[in-house]
User: Fold DUF1003 domain-containing protein from Phnomibacter ginsenosidimutans.
Amino acid sequence: MLKSSISQLPITNQEAVKGSEIRTSIFSLIREKHPAFDQDSILSLDELNAFRRMYLKQLMEQEKGELAQIDLDVMTAIQHNAILSENIEPEMEATLTRGQKLADMIASFGGSWTFILSFFSFLMIWMAVNVWVLSSKPFDPFPFILLNLILSCLAAIQAPIIMMSQNRQEQKDRLRAEHDYKINLKAELEIKLLSEKIDHLLVHQNKKLLEIQDVQIDYLEDLMKKIGQQPPRA
Assistant:
């Protein structure tokens, strides 16, 4: 059984990869970590995949500088074959306080037709009561100073509540954007890894095909020699 030139662990022939079959950039990275590794050395496919992930990390660091936490999460997910796609809505809702939930409810109600029609009806009833029903002694005569005070207080209270809800919505949108970025980045890196693996498989298959052709050529040469050695028939 073969042994890995890096870990010295036994590996099967199917998992063995020669240094000559590895892409130049990744081969250079392996040589940096293990100077004794050469074109004739072998390593396992799992070890090669680990160096491929290390190479992708170096590419990201060269492109972006120091990796942010969001990029480190993606690299960790790739190394552990973890899934990043998940429903983040329940997690976001679980972290809301009572005040934030109340602000969202008020903002949702304040931006609905139910609130508009209800408030418009309230205004009509208020003015009708003070103009016609209590025309002799209205509690808020025209120009409805008390009503204006109520409207001003309502606007003053409603505006910061709506802003609180908008801030919560911005936080949700930012979390969704980060989540989408993680998924897109992981997909891009996984595609690069798949490209590396496909290239390796193509090289390996081409070498196998060439070996098969060489064996077939040897068979043909042997047959030609045997035919040439046979005496001619009368």
Summary: Residues 1-47 form one domain. The beta strands are 2-3, 10-11, 16-18, 42-44. The radius of gyration is 37 Å.
